[in-house]
């Protein structure tokens, strides 16, 4: 690769927190013309799993992708049939390509997600309608928790779930959820006065909006409820996020039917649109809830380069990873980590939301598309038996 590209600040992908082995080798090529780039890809790029990044003439990372066969994927960008598509436009702006091999397709998926979150390359987000960008449904923000959306969920939330797609319908869903559970949706700058708060003088706190009067908010800003009363509604909202409460669906169905019966067709139409949004959220929450309840195990993934990994999936998230043991010495060294995994798996209170909560959707989708992979998973307490079986097969 030309030396000019090696001097660019975006050269390289940085550390991989889900790589238990040594740093993966990085390859890079450069060229001023598409033909030069294509010839270099043909000459040196391997047909193995990995991630790749496109750099523009300023050396800025403009796109990140993954593939289970890097060479074929990169060559597809140069196909005539792709010229007018997004891939063709990306390669028109590309002056260098770098790639990092990964031991498996699953590892490549995780690394791609990590890199997009880290760098947010413009071609991964620009040209993608906001309605298709992932957002997280969050319940939190003291002193009066409420539903809101975030592209990167805060750490201090009562409940977080996602990702969800469709910004418009998610905004409708959030609006509907706050109304059904009577939670506030005002700014954090709003002053809050709960009923039990002692006042030197009797004050008449006015609500910051009309929702208290309309009966769609408990009014924590106007001392219309106590903290404990408000918390009961937050608890009910949390059960909805956990996939165990369909109260909003039922409430909106009743509103829609009553409005239609009263010939309030505009209200009925609005309730119907909100209902569609909430039904989407509820379906996805139910799917993610299944993953949280059932997906706690060790997922062994072989590597094409003998860099196999054991992923500890906890409550549907990738919680930790270790190099797959291939000898007694490896297994002995892994025992302390396995003890931690067993303790985490045995804790009935811990529902996940660990270091990598954003992996829940990826894990859920992976096993939905690759159901047979679940047969290879095993509980942490069976690690020794599975290791011995694998050792016997390779002997």
Automatic annotation (TrEMBL):
One of its GO terms (biological process) is nucleotide-excision repair. Residues 47-125 form the GIY-YIG domain. Keywords: DNA damage, SOS response. InterPro entries: GIY-YIG_endonuc (IPR000305), GIY-YIG_endonuc_sf (IPR035901), GIY-YIG_UvrC_Cho (IPR047296), UVR_dom_sf (IPR036876), UvrABC_protein_C (IPR050066). It holds the Pfam family GIY-YIG. GO terms for cellular component: excinuclease repair complex. It comes from the Bacteria. This is UvrABC system protein C. It comes from Novipirellula aureliae. The gene is uvrC_2.
